[in-house]
């Protein structure tokens, strides 16, 4: 899975997916191609389960 697929999975931009891929604890890529890093789908999905839900910040409580 590439950064675009990771972005889609997490509900973030491709740029944010790239930022996340450089953080500690993010799975290492299987290979780095000229087009970008390629990650094992199962590892990314496992990592994603330890993170917040899609959309980033928690929603504000409605009045």
Tell me what you see in this structure.
By secondary structure, this protein is an alpha+beta fold. 38% of the residues lie in helices and 10% in strands. It has three helices and two strands; from the N terminus they run H-H-E-E-H. It has helices spanning 3-10, 14-21, 41-48; strands at residues 31-33, 36-38. Strands 1-2 form a two-stranded antiparallel ribbon. A hairpin with a 2-residue loop joins strand 1 (31-33) and strand 2. The longest helix has 8 residues, at 3-10. The chain starts with a helix and ends in a 15-residue tail after the last helix. The model has no long low-confidence stretch (mean pLDDT 87).
Oligomer: single chain
Largest sheet: 2 strands, antiparallel
Percent helix, as a range, is: 25-40%
- Tell me, what's the shape? globular
Query: How would you write the strand order of the largest sheet?
Result: 1-2
**Element string (H = helix, E = strand):** HHEEH
Report, as a whole number of angstroms, the end-to-end distance. Answer: 40 Å
Structural class: alpha+beta
Proportion of beta-strand residues: 5-15%
Radius of gyration: 13 Å
Mean pLDDT: 87
Q: How many H/I helices?
A: 3
Which stretches are low in confidence, meaning pLDDT under 50 for 5 or more residues running? none
Number of DSSP strand runs: 2
């Amino acid at each position: 899975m590439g950064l675009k697929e990771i972005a889609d999975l997490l509900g973030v931009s491709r740029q944010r997916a790239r930022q996340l891929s450089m953080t500690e604890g993010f799975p290492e890529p299987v290979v780095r191609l000229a087009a970008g890093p390629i990650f094992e789908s199962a590892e990314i999905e496992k990592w994603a389960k330890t993170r917040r839900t899609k959309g980033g910040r928690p929603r504000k409580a409605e009045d």
